[in-house]
Every structure is written in C-alpha cells, then in structure tokens.
Design brief:
799 residues, mainly alpha, Serine Threonine Protein Phosphatase 5, Tetratricopeptide repeat, two-stranded antiparallel sheet, 7 strands, Ankyrin_rpt, NPHP3-like_N, repeat
C-alpha cells in the first residue's frame, strides 16, 4: 500500500487517478468484505473524477428513492458503469491483502475485474488493477503479470536494509554474519525477519553470549516460530491466554484502554491483579498501554496507528497459527474442541466483574448525586472498559451458552443495575431500556437466542416489556432476530415442518404499530409460517388486519384469514377494503374469494377509488365484468375526478365500460379527457375506439395540452394527426407537441411529428425551440432536430 501512495503522487487531476483498498480481517464488516471495497473504490473514483457522478442519476442503475447503500450487485454495476465512462481518463486500482477476505468473495471479485478490464481493452480505455495477497488462497488470473515478492531481486536487499536499521548490535562483522544466517532461514518471509530481529535484540540485551545459538534454535517455519515465542517463556500464561481470547473473540477490536482494563478484570478473577483498578490518566499512559500489549501478547499483538487505535495481532498469520494450526490446543490442552464457548465464558466473567466492581458503583452514585452533564465521557475517563463491558456482557454469555449452562448467571444477574449502566452508553434514546424492563424482552431485542432458551427454562412465558416494542416476540421479529423468534416460539431451530419459518425475515425496526400484536405483525409482513404457528398457539384472527394483508400483497395469508372467518367488509381509516387491496396487487384469486364471501363492490377507499377503479387500472377484463354484474358504478369518480374509464388502457375494458354507460366526454379535475389518458398510455386500439365514438381530438386540459401533447407512441401520434389534431397547438406555456416530445425523450414521436410537418423553429413562452430543450438532455433527438433544420434551411436557400 505504500507503493500505491507513491503512485498516487503522480496522479494528474481529472486525467489520471489512483484508488486503493486494503482488506482487514480484524476490522469491521466494511473493511473485510467486497461490498466495503466497492463502496470505497466508488467513492474515491467519483470524488477523483466528478464528471462521472452522472451515473448516479441513471434510474436503471440506482433507484430514485434509494436511501440506503445499494446491494452488492448494484455496487458492481455502478463500478462497471463508472469505469466505462472514463473516456480518456486513466484509472489505476490497488487492492491489497486479498487473503484477509472471504475466499469465494475474492474469486468472484477477481472474475468481475477481469471482465471489466477486458471490456476496457476492447474500448481502448486506460484501466489497470494490481492485486496483492499471501500465497494462500491461490488466486488464478487469466491474463496479467504475476510477481512473487520473495523471488524479486530487490526483496533481499529490503530485508537486509530492515535488519541493518533494527538490529541493535554494533559489531559489524557479527551483524553481517547474523544477517546472512537470517536471510537463509527466512526464505524471504518479512514477518519472520521482523520477529527474529526482536528475539536477537533481546538476547543482545542479556550480554550477547549466545546469539548464534539462539538464532540456530529459531524455527524456520513461521507457525513454529510463533509457538517458540509463546512457549519459551512460561511466565504470565494467564495474561497471554486472556490477551489471545480478547483479540480473537471480542465483538469488536478493543481500544488500548479497554484492553488494559479487560485483562486486569480477568486477572483480578484469578487473584493475579491488584484489587484497585489501574489508573488510566497518567502522563505516560500511552507508553504503558503499548508495553502492556506487547508483554501480555509476547510481542504478537500491537496497537494500530490510526485515529482510533485498537489492539490486533501483528499479522493475520498469528490467527491462522492459533486456530488453523491448532496453536491454541498446543498451548492450553485443557481447551476443548468448542474452545469458543470456553473463551466467551472467560470474557463474560471479565465484563461482569468489571461492570459491578465496587469502584464503578461508587462513581455512578457520585454522578447521580451531582447530576454530571456528560456521564458517558466522565465514566470512560475512569473506566475505559465500562462501555464495552456493559454493551457486550450478554453477547459473550449467549455465545458461551452453546456449551456452558447459563442458568445461574441469568438468575443472579442484577438487571436494574446493568440497565442503569447500559443506558448511559446507549446513544439513541429509543434504544434505552426501562429500569423495570423484562430480561426476556432485552434478550429478544438483542438477538440472544441461547439465553432466551435458558431463561424460558427458568421462567416459562414469552410476555414482557421494557422498550420500544410491546413484547419480546415483536421485538425479535421487528429486529430480524431469526434465532430469537424460533426460541420464543418454543422451536428447537428455525426449521418447522421442513420449512424455515423465519425465511425473508429482515430487520424492520420501525414496522410495528401501536397496539399491534405479534400475529397481526406476522400477517401484515407476510410471514405465513409464523402466523400459522401463532394461530396454533392461541392467537385470534380478529387481531389481524385483513385490509393491510391484502394491500401488502400477501395472498396466502389473506386466504388463511378468510378460511378462519375474517370480516370481508372490514375497512381501514381511509375506507379501503380487502377487495381494494387484492385488486391493487392484481391478486384476482383472493379478490374472487372476497366477492364470494360478500365484499362490497361499491366501497369507496383510499383516494375515493372503488374496486372498479382498481380492476380497470390493472386491466383485468373478467373481473371488470364481474364487478359490473354485481352493481359496480361505472360513473364513480375518485379524488382526482377520474372515472374507471380514465384509468384503463385496455380497449376491451373500455368498450364494456362504454356499453355500461361510461361518459366519453367526462374530464378529471385537471380537465383531462379519456383521450388524453389513452394517448399518454400509448394505447392505439383505445385511441381508435375513442375517436370512433366521437372524442374531441383537440380538447385541452387545464394546462392547455391536447391529446397530441400527451402521446407516447408514434402510431398514436399519427392517428391523432389523421383525425385532425392540431400540430401547432400550444399549451399555456407556449409548448407545442414537438417541444413536449423533445423534453420527454420520445424519439419515435419526434420523428412522427417531423414527418407531419411540425415546426422546429417554433418557440415557447421562454423563447426556446425544441432543439434548445433537447440539446443538453437528449443528444440523439437534438441531432435529428438539427439535421431537420439544416435540411429545411437548404431547401429555403434553393427556393
């Protein structure tokens, strides 16, 4: 990555750009996933070449109403589109540490970059990509230059330079001898050299009488070297184990102060630490943290050099040694196969001890009595681990519960005290808990399914409150905690009768209405299996809102409710019925059942629409016939003044409506006729019928537009003109049909109008011609208009 920084210095603004990404397996999700990589590269690319930002306006790539980061497939499409828009600009990508991301994600990503690169070669664009990775996993690339660092001429010189700078021995012949030995044993592995230099420096501090012997004893393999470092000194093994467990199993990387107090808490449990908390506000505390991280991890961990430093292994290969190479078992044979449960149990105890330490209680009491303005900051200054411990103690307990019984822990857990501390560190008021919150509610909302099962063994019953949701089950469902939902329903897993009952269950935090029951929520959100289970467990059909179920398009649940006697004539606040909902979602099968059970065909719902409005708009001929046979009003108007005839673009439906008395001349509140609407829909057959029935081809709407202005197809345009439509007619802003078609990018309509003699020199009230309107937005139309103008000018000149 240092090299990418060097290359970036040669970038030419708006002409050449270097972007980069470093996968970090120890970081947050965005730091170790290809989604995070695409987001980062896109941001750098769009900032470096602002003219490419226009791709974000393409609705085919990203939805207009997109409010959250789009999914991976959209990110890839955006990146591809951005690269294809480079033109003469050059782009270089450096993507480092592929081995620190999921292997399948990396293989898919490399294939994608190969496709993009091949397209750039065909289009003669300047696009280069440099990947770097450890030897495993092996990544195959179809075309490109493969460089193996250890085999490069300059690599040995780099290693020599590192040894020369960091080996603290002032005897040049000895340094030269040791350097040669190290280079031979290292086999080009830089990390091996860095670790062995530290070992030799330590030996040098003890008198330099066994340097060569120590170097000969050092294993050649990196994994064996890690084991040698960790086992040579048998002291402070408890500290080492805690260090490793915290780095491996913490829910997020710990900051230096958190790590310092987390290990102290664990050592206190073993009576290996002072009973008093170590202070963290001395002038040399940063140096203290650094020394403690190095000593406790025996040099295999470090503090990152970032704005918010955290503690991590010096390299991902340390994690590989401990887990893949089973270094943990070698060091601590007592750890069973499920070492993670034992590890989380240790971390749970560290958190629990820290949260309820007497010093913390005294500080809280003092704050409550003095009403401290910023209690979180004040507490963290004294107790840097308190935020993490209070937020994650239950997380570690739940993870430990896979193998270790947690009944005693839950029974004795001082919940009100924990809530008091938790709320101090919870930034969002809506996520804070009531002081009398039920433990089951908290476990459900936070997704701790193992602890839920344990708690239900202690205290059966799934009711309880304590926060933003009315019940534990609603909290689990709204937060998308699938395991918690299964646990609360008393199931051993999410699979019930061969079906995953939580399939498609996602986090929808704000989806719960006041007074809503779990059964009603499951029905309205479309979770059929959960709804069926709740019915079996005693929920009542009247809890569910049949209207909302049909409006949301959940036909199977609607049928289930109807089969259980749901009220087909029920209406919501705006008058919408289940029949409206089913028709709006084209669920005609459910709509037929509703009619058979007595649904009201004249009901006026949202927007004052009747079921006939909905069926006409959706173009379902047979259902329109059924509604008319059952007495639907063909002349009913909605809140915009539209009749069912206004809303259809189907000629057969229009004929039936007309036969039943629909008025062809009726206009909506904007004075648009049926012909306006049919032209806008591009329905040739319907336009023909309306014209044959005597529709006024030059009728104008409130804004002065005729049906010709609204035409969206060349065939409709030609038909209207043949029936006498005025091609020169202007709206209230002076826009002709050609102006409007040019604005709306209706290429074929523009061609049809030009063939029929539309005036391209006509100006609107702002003095703009059709060409003026098209040239910045729609270059293809602008070119056609320009060519027409040139041709007409030539003809005029000849004449």
């Amino acid at each position: 990555m240092a090299f990418s920084g060097f290359v970036r210095k040669t970038d030419i603004p708006l002409k050449a750009l270097t972007v980069s990404f470093f996968f970090n397996a120890r970081g947050d999700l965005l730091e170790k996933s290809v989604s995070g990589m695409y987001r980062s590269l896109l941001l750098q690319l769009l900032q470096g070449f602002p003219d490419i930002q226009i791709i974000l306006d393409d609705p085919d790539l990203i939805a207009r109403n997109q409010v959250i980061c789009p999914p991976l497939n959209v990110l890839k499409d955006l990146f591809r589109s951005a690269v294809s828009s480079l033109g003469n600009q050059a782009l270089t990508c450096f993507i480092d540490a592929l081995d620190e991301c999921d292997e399948q994600q990396i293989r898919d990503m490399v294939e994608f970059f190969e496709e993009v690169a091949e397209q750039c070669v065909e289009d003669n664009m300047k696009f280069q990509v440099c990947f770097s990775s450890r030897h495993y996993p092996y990544i195959d690339i179809k075309s490109g230059i493969r460089l193996t660092l250890e085999g490069q001429d300059g690599h040995s010189e780099d290693l020599k330079r590192y040894i020369s700078r960091h080996l603290r021995i002032k005897d040049p012949p000895l340094v030269e001898e040791l350097t040669a030995m190290m280079l031979e044993k290292a086999a080009g592995v830089f990390l091996w050299v860095a670790l062995v230099v530290d070992i030799l420096n330590e030996e040098n501090r003890h008198g330099r009488i066994a340097l060569r012997t120590r170097l000969r004893q050092v294993p050649n393999e990196l994994s064996a070297l890690f084991q040698d470092i960790l086992t040579r000194d048998k002291g402070h093994l408890e500290r080492l184990l805690l260090s490793i467990l915290w780095i491996l199993l913490a829910e997020r990387p710990l900051q230096p102060g958190e790590y310092y107090h987390a290990l102290w808490s664990g050592l206190l449990l073993r009576q290996k630490g002072d009973p008093e908390m170590p202070p963290v506000n001395s002038t040399d505390i940063s140096d203290c943290f650094n020394k403690f991280v190095i000593s406790s991890s025996k040099g295999l961990a470090e503090i990152t050099k970032s704005k918010k430093p955290t503690v991590q292994f010096i390299h991902e290969s340390v994690r590989d040694f401990l887990i893949k190479d089973k270094g943990l078992y070698t060091l601590w044979p007592t750890l069973a196969a499920d070492w993670k449960s034992q590890g989380h149990e240790e971390l749970k105890l560290c958190c629990n001890t820290y949260i309820f330490h007497e010093t913390v209680r005294e500080a809280l009491d003092k704050q409550n009595s003095t009403h401290t303005q910023d209690p979180e900051e004040s507490l963290l200054e004294q107790f840097p681990f308190l935020g993490y411990a209070s937020q994650c103690v239950l997380h570690h307990a739940d993870a430990a519960a896979h193998e270790i019984i947690q009944q005693e822990f839950l029974s004795e857990f001082p919940l009100p005290k924990w809530i008091t501390i938790f709320n101090v560190f919870e930034k969002h008021k809506i996520r804070k808990y009531d002081l009398d919150a039920n433990i089951l509610y908290i476990l459900a909302e936070r997704g701790y399914s193992n602890l839920i099962r344990t708690n239900l063994e202690i205290s059966p019953g799934i009711e309880g409150a304590g926060g933003r949701y009315p019940s534990p089950l609603l909290a689990a469902m709204a937060k998308g905690n699938k395991g918690s939902v299964a646990a609360l329903l008393g199931l051993p897993s999410r699979i019930y009768n061969g079906v995953d009952i939580t399939d498609k269950l996602k986090c929808r935090r704000d989806s719960v209405r006041k007074g809503q029951t779990p059964f009603a929520w499951a029905c309205e959100e479309g979770h059929l299996a959960i709804a069926q289970l709740l019915l079996q467990n005693g929920s009542r059909v009247i809890e569910a809102d049949l209207v909302r179920v049909t409006v949301n398009g959940h036909s199977e649940i609607a049928k289930m409710l109807l089969g259980k006697g749901a009220d087909v004539r029920a209406v919501n606040k705006d008058g919408t019925t289940a029949l409206h909902g089913a028709l709006s979602k084209c669920d005609f099968e459910t709509a037929k059942i509703l009619l058979d059970k007595g649904a009201d065909v004249t009901a006026v719902g949202r927007g004052r629409r009747t079921p006939l409005h909905e069926a006409s708009a959706k173009g379902h001929l047979e259902f329109v016939k059924i509604l008319l046979d059952k007495g639907a009003d063909v002349t009913a108007v909605d809140w915009l003044g539209s009749t069912p005839l206004h809303l259809t673009s189907d000629s057969d439906i229009a004929m039936i409506l007309l036969d039943k008395g629909a008025d062809i001349t009726v206009t909506d509140h904007d004075r648009r006729t049926i012909l306006h609407r049919a032209s806008s829909a591009g329905s040739v057959e319907l336009v023909k019928i309306l014209l044959e029935k005597g529709a006024d081809v030059n009728a104008v709407s409130k804004d002065g537009k005729t049906a010709l202005h609204h035409s969206t197809s060349a065939e409709v345009t030609t038909l209207l003109l043949e029936k006498g439509a005025d091609i020169t007619a202007t709206d209230t802003d002076g826009w002709t049909s050609l102006h409007f078609a040019s604005l709306m990018n209706r290429l074929e309509v523009v061609k049809a109008l030009l063939e029929k003699g539309a005036g391209i020199t006509a100006k609107n009230n702002s003095g703009r011609t059709s060409y003026d309107i098209a040239r910045w937005r729609h270059p293809q139309i602008a070119m056609i208009l320009l060519e027409k103008e040139i041709k007409d000018s030539s003809v005029r000149d000849v004449n």
